[in-house]
UniProtKB/TrEMBL annotation:
InterPro entries: Transmembrane_26. It comes from the Eukaryota. Coiled coil: none annotated. Keywords: Membrane, Transmembrane, Transmembrane helix. The chain crosses the membrane at residues 7-28, 34-52, 64-83, 136-155, 198-219, 263-296. This is Transmembrane protein 26.
Length: 319
């Protein structure tokens, strides 16, 4: 069992480093500057964390927080920022490229069966460089989100985390990843040329929303052993948090990390940058409904909460 944990921990972090390395290679290719290989320095904390986790914790992750996922995000997010900013600055001057929007286009860039190894490697390099920049960036976003879900699944469970909690967390990750991908792909496509302020706002909110993945507070929560009896000195607010911590953390994440910031950005896009179309309005309404329903859910939790009565002190009758 320990060997399986070691293998899973190493494979997961190796995939993290591989995807980050592909991102750095793409940045170096697009910018045509070997200095961008220095971005590989960001992998060092992930390697140090892997060595520490394998030696001290036998590959086991933490209960509330995943350092490996956080360090993976730190290693790849700068590459995605550089690619996004470069693409927004050079939309008009992008060279002829192959879009990955049909099977015929995909088959045309794949190597044939009869090619030699050297020719296959050269064809692979030409294939990767001929794909459209927008498709490249979208693929990095997609691979990043899929790998975050698979990586959390492969990482050995932290102490106190059950398989039921892990399954709930993975389902939350799938829904979160879909919303984040829709936000970045749809909103960045609305950016007009030379509108760098809006690009920075969208990327900043996207980076902020990615912080949900290292945290496990929405599912992995501490529970009192006897919820009917409050501990000595425990206040009403602490008791409410201990009993409904999962619901409250879900609400906090939605309001301040995902749907709340997404709604603000979409309103800014519509009001200040004069962008208006059917899908943008739909997703803004969707974010608004989620925010309102989460506030309603919080009010219901607070109103329905009834703290248990304090234990009555019975006095023995005097003789």
């Amino acid at each position: 069992m320990i060997l399986v944990k070691f293998v899973c921990a190493i494979i997961t972090r190796s995939l993290f480093i591989l995807v980050s390395l592909i991102g750095v290679w793409r940045v170096k290719t697009v910018k045509n500057d070997n200095m961008y290989w220095l971005l590989t320095v960001l992998y060092l904390p992930l390697v140090v964390e892997m060595i520490f986790t394998l030696r001290r914790r036998k590959g086991q992750d933490y209960k509330w927080f995943s350092p490996a996922i956080l360090l993976f995000l730190i290693s790849i997010i700068p590459s995605i920022w550089i690619l996004e900013l470069h693409h927004q600055e050079n939309k008009a001057s992008d060279p002829q490229c192959r879009k990955l929007d049909s099977w015929d286009n995909v088959k045309s860039i794949l190597p044939s069966n009869g090619t030699m190894v050297n020719e296959t490697l050269k064809h692979l390099e030409r294939m990767l460089t001929s794909v459209c920049p927008n498709d490249w960036i979208l693929a990095l976003h997609q691979v990043l989100l899929i790998l975050l879900i698979l990586g959390k699944w492969l990482l050995p469970l932290g102490g106190g985390v059950t398989r039921d909690e892990l399954s709930q967390l993975l389902l939350i990750f799938v829904g979160t990843a879909a919303d984040i991908l829709e936000f970045t792909s749809e909103t960045l496509s609305d950016v007009k040329e030379k509108n760098h302020q809006l690009v920075y706002i969208i990327l900043a909110v996207w980076t902020w929303s990615m912080l949900q993945f290292p945290l496990h507070l929405a599912v992995v929560t501490s529970r009192p052993q006897n919820p009917d009896e409050p501990k000595a000195g425990e206040g009403c607010c602490n008791l409410l948090l201990s009993r409904h911590s999962t619901d409250i953390w879900n609400i906090v994440e939605s309001l301040f990390i995902q749907d709340g910031p997404f709604l603000v950005v979409r309103l800014i896009v519509m009001i200040f940058f004069d962008v208006f179309h059917q899908m943008l309005v739909f997703f803004a309404i969707k974010n608004f409904l989620v925010v309102v329903l989460n506030l309603y859910r919080l009010i219901v939790i607070c109103q329905d909460f009834r703290p248990p009565p304090p234990p009555s002190s019975s006095t023995s009758p005097s003789v």
